[in-house]
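Two entries, shown back to back:
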Amino acid sequence: MTAPAAGYSDVTVTAGQNSTGHLFADAPATASIAGRVFGDVNGNGVRDTHEPGLGLFTVYLDLNGDGRLDTGDVSATTDINGNFKFTGLTAGTYKVRVVAVSGFTVTHPTGGAQSVTLAAGQASTSTLFGEQSMT
């Protein structure tokens, strides 16, 4: 999935109006965030070797920081092994979250969100989320 720049703003002008003082820059969108959602069988918040990845979980970049998946946020669905990846990102800090699934509770991270800071071109590969089945 490709995400918009972490910070952006709109400029609105009407016919005949001038707008000045806006700075624009092309930032390379070559960074990425990848990780896994795992089934935390024992609920300890740590991915143990026997704990499986969880497929079909929705992971998203909470671009406005409101704690819910909104229009404008970018999302990805985990594969059968629980893996996800966001590509085409610019340098900046991103808040990564998992959409709550009925019957599961978050064990890692505390608070349910990971903050990932990327440099231009950086590939972050260790964003991890633990989910324990309550059934």
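entry 2 starts here
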Amino acid sequence: MPEQHLDAHSANLRESIDLARQQISESLDDIQLNIEETLDWRAWVDSHPRELVGIGLALGFYLGVR
């Protein structure tokens, strides 16, 4: 009987470990996707066109005056 209890406990432990691994893997995938979206300059250009025009104008003015 104690051996069956140990086997059931081992199975529960393995299941918990597998679930934790799956959750960690999903979290890492979410983090990677978030980082890729944050660092994608094309998406930033699409979502902030006015700011980039302003930066371009300011940079052009600065270089022209210099």
